[in-house]
Structures are given as C-alpha cells and as structure tokens.
C-alpha cells in the first residue's frame, strides 16, 4: 500500500473553501444561501485593473515570466513596503507569488526543519497550522481572548518560547477576529523577536481594510529591531477584489527571499504576467475604488453586528478590520437539535447551513471552539435575510432550562 508523508500528505482540505463550495452548489440549485463563509469581497475587480489585464493579453504577455515576478511589479511592491515603514526595502528583496498563500507557504518551507516550533496567536486563520505542518513544523498556540479585544499579551508570547522556537506568525488586521494589534504591542513583539532571534512572518493582507478610529501600521515600521528577521506578506486579493487573479508578494531579508525564489522556480514558477500587470495597475492606479469598498464594508459590518447582537445570548464584538465578525455562540453549544446534542461549533455550523441556509465557518478550525465566523463580504440584503434565518434557527433549539 502506498504510504504518504505525515506532513504534507496528511493535510485536510481547507474547510472554508469546502463550505463555500457547498454553499455555491446549493445556490445553483435555487436555494437562497447566505454566503457568510467566503473570505473574498463580493465586489467586481475595478475596471481600470481589468483593462490592464485585458491589454496584457492583447500584448501577448502569455509566456513564462521570471520566477521572482516581473521587475516592474517588484519595484512597485518595494516602494509600497518602504512607504509603509520597511526602511531599506528594495526590489531584489521582494518576490511575487500566486497569492499571499504562496508567499506564506514558501516562507515556512525554507526556514523550518523537522520539529521547529512556530508561535501562532489564536484565534488564527485555519491555513497557518496546515502550512506549518506541511513544512514539518509544530504550532505553539498563544491564546488571545475576546474580553481583551484579541490583543496579543507579550508576556504570554514570551512564556511560549522554547529552544525550538523558530518563527512567529503575526496577522493584523486578523482573520477571523478582525482585531488590529496596537502599536505598542507590535513594538514589544519586535523586541522579543530580536532578543530571541525569532523570524516574524507578518501577514498584512487586510492592510486596507481597517476602520477608523483604528489604523493600520506595518510591523516593519513598529519593530525596527526585528527588521532583519521580518518578512511582510501582502497582496491584491482582499482590498482590490482580486482573489481570482492570484497575486501576493513578500518582502524581507535578502537571504530568506532568495531561497523562496529558488524554491518557487522549481515548485510553482512565476505567476502569469497578465495577473501581475493587473496588480501593477492596482498598486499604481486610483485609490477611489478602495475607499468606496471600505465605506460599504464599514456599513455592512454595523448591520451584521447589530443583527447578531439582537439574538439572545449571542455576543458579537465590533471588529476594527478585515470583513469578518466572530461572535461567541457558546450558549448554543449546550443546546440540542431534534434531541441531538450540538456540543461543537462544527456541528452548529453544519446545522446552520442545512436549516438556516447560512454558510458560516466554525470556530473549531480557528482554534476558538466557542465561536463561528461570519463574513460580511456580501450584500446588506444577504446579511439581513441570512442573520434573520440564523436567529430563527438558534432560538428554535432546545436549550437547558438554566441557559
């Protein structure tokens, strides 16, 4: 019998993508499913960006490109990173990948050895631990709590460090919580990383989805002591509504980036020129489309939070960034449906999809079993209808008399 690697060969499918695919199949069957699972904007890619991609096709930009990405896009990325506070950033310290996921995957592959530990604040995006596993590493959870606004406690982070600690994954604004880490916390994390020689992968994909009075600050700007250990990850997927164009980038120490480029040359090759030229148009073009989408997301966020907080015993903090809310639904994990105890957020999410026709992602996959993730990257009408069905379903469950 064929045996598979216990690392990459043992990975399960992304539950977010699986739930989203199920919801799309149901909608194709004519079922009105609220699309609260998807981690992508429902807006179309702005026309100026699409035109750049179309022009690239007309210009015959359909051949292999450099493994590191197009020089002009790398230069634009370097300019953005330097402008965000990564002093000394140059194009040769960047690479372009098929999505920010590609950057994260390559980054972990080239720095981890068997058994190396990666500090991961929780709740965390569900693909981080799978990528660490695929690179033969081990996640060490650093819990953050709703009552603290999901802010990382530097003392808790420091206590989790061992001789095997190799890296830290930071995500601000964060998925699934939408939390924006305060400047002083990020600065202290930088000092800890520099003191212990810990590599920091700062996933800043939601940079442009931060809502005032909160503000985004790049980790590279706040933690200069750790700059030689820091890789910044970003891309066009979320802010520019370009998820399907598959363009992400990284910028960091030259030795780290060059090894990622060499691995990409064997594993993936460079992304299509068509997508890269569209991304270049996004980075160098007008900002009005970003501002318009941000305004709509902000309004949807309030509609969703108000609707969820109106459900008895559901507690939904208003997030500072991204396009997710992460309500505490633990009161309903004690309930039963048709005599069957629910117990887990995974089972509750399944029941919501089946009976409320609302696709959500269970907190179990984010290392937060007390919650579920709702995306508000959908229309206000979808939010109102979908959350109303969720409310009807939850209040129909049989709950203990003392609940």
Could you characterize what this model shows?
With 403 residues, the protein is an alpha/beta fold. It has 2 domains: 8-44 and 289-396, Aspartate Aminotransferase, domain 1; 63-284, 3-Layer(aba) Sandwich (Aspartate Aminotransferase, domain 2), CATH 3.40.640.10. The chain is 40% helix and 13% strand. It is built from 13 helices and 14 strands. The strands form 4 sheets. A 7-stranded mixed beta sheet has the order 2-8-7-6-5-3-4, sandwiched between helices. Strand 3 (117-122), helix 5 (127-134) and strand 4 form a beta-alpha-beta unit. Helix 4 (100-111) runs parallel beside helix 5 (127-134) and helix 11 (288-309) runs parallel beside helix 13 (380-396).
Defining key terms:
Aspartate Aminotransferase, domain 1, 40% helix, 2 domains, globular, 14 strands, alpha/beta, 403 residues, seven-stranded mixed sheet, Aspartate Aminotransferase, domain 2
Précis, in short:
It contains 13 helices and 14 strands. The chain is of the alpha/beta class.
CATH architecture of the largest domain: 3-Layer(aba) Sandwich
CATH topology of the largest domain: Aspartate Aminotransferase, domain 2
Counting structural domains, the number is: 2
Helical amount? 25-40%
Which spans have pLDDT < 50 for at least 5 consecutive residues?
none
Please render the helix and strand layout as text.
Blueprint: H1 15-28, E1 34-35, H2 47-58, H3 71-83, E2 94-97, H4 100-111, E3 117-122, H5 127-134, E4 138-143, H6 154-159, E5 165-171, H7 183-196, E6 199-203, H8 219-222, E7 230-235, E8 248-251, H9 254-267, H10 273-284, H11 288-309, E9 324-325, E10 336-337, E11 340-341, H12 345-356, E12 358-359, E13 361-362, E14 372-375, H13 380-396
Parallel strand pairs: 1-12, 3-4, 3-5, 5-6, 6-7
Antiparallel strand pairs: 2-8, 7-8, 9-14, 10-11, 13-14
């Amino acid at each position: 019998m064929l045996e598979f690697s216990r690392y990459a060969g043992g990975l399960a499918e992304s539950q977010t993508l699986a739930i989203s695919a199920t919801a799309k199949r149901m909608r194709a069957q004519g079922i009105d499913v609220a699309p609260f699972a998807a981690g992508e904007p429902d807006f179309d890619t702005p026309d100026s960006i699409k035109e750049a991609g179309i022009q690239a096709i007309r210009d015959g930009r359909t051949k292999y490109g450099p493994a590191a990405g197009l020089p002009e896009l790398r230069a634009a990325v370097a300019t953005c990173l330097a402008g965000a506070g990564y002093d000394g950033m140059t194009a040769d310290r960047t690479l372009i990948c098929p999505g920010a996921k590609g950057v994260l995957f390559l980054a972990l592959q080239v720095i981890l050895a068997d058994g190396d530990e990666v500090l991961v604040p929780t709740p965390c995006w569900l693909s981080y631990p799978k990528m660490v596993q695929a690179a033969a590493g081990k996640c060490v959870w650093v819990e953050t709590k709703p009552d603290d606004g999901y802010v990382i406690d530097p003392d808790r982070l420091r206590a989790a460090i061992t001789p095997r600690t190799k890296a830290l994954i930071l995500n601000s604004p964060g998925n699934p919580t939408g939390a924006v880490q305060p400047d002083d916390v990020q600065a202290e994390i930088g000092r800890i990383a520099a003191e212990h020689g810990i590599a920091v992968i700062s996933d800043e994909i939601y940079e442009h989805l931060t809502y005032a009075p909160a503000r985004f600050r790049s980790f590279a700007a706040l933690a200069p002591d750790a700059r030689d250990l820091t890789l910044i990850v970003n891309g066009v997927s979320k802010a520019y509504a370009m998820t399907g164009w598959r363009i992400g980038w990284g910028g960091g120490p030259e030795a780290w980036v060059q090894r990622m480029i060499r691995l990409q040359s064997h594993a993936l090759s460079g992304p299509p020129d068509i997508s890269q030229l569209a991304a270049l148009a996004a980075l160098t073009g007008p900002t009005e489309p970003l501002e318009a989408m941000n305004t709509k997301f902000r309004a949807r966020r309030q509609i969703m939070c108000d609707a969820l907080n109106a459900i008895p015993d559901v507690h939904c903090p208003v997030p500072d960034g991204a396009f997710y809310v992460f309500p505490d639904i633990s009161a309903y994990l004690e309930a039963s449906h048709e005599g069957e105890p629910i117990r887990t957020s995974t089972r509750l999410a399944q029941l919501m999809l089946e009976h409320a026709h609302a696709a959500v992602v269970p907190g179990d996959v984010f290392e937060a079993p007390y919650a579920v993730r709702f995306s508000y990257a959908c229309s206000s009408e979808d939010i109102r209808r979908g959350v109303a069905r969720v409310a009807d379903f939850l209040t129909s469950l049989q709950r203990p008399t003392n609940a």
